[in-house]
Amino acid sequence: SEIGLIYLRRGDFDRGIEHLRSAVRSKPDYAPAHFNLSLALRHVGEFEESLRHAEEVLRINPDFPRGRRLRDELVAARERAAGSETDGEP
Hints:
Layout: H1 2-9, H2 13-26, H3 31-43, H4 47-60, H5 67-86
Helix pairs in contact: 1-2, 2-3, 3-4, 4-5
């Protein structure tokens, strides 16, 4: 997880996400890894996968700091996107 964060800080999101995915696979109940992966995925526009990891954070630890806010932001973004897709329909 730490290596993934180093890559993210350097702007190498592909490698950062790769390392964070590996961290999640090796420790599936480690909420911070899911949280960091969710943030990184959100940054690159992978909102649905980001939301799944944000929800996993809260499943593991419902009191995780910033976890609920991240999940709520992702749900709101999905709802806005869905609304904008239907705005042009009769």
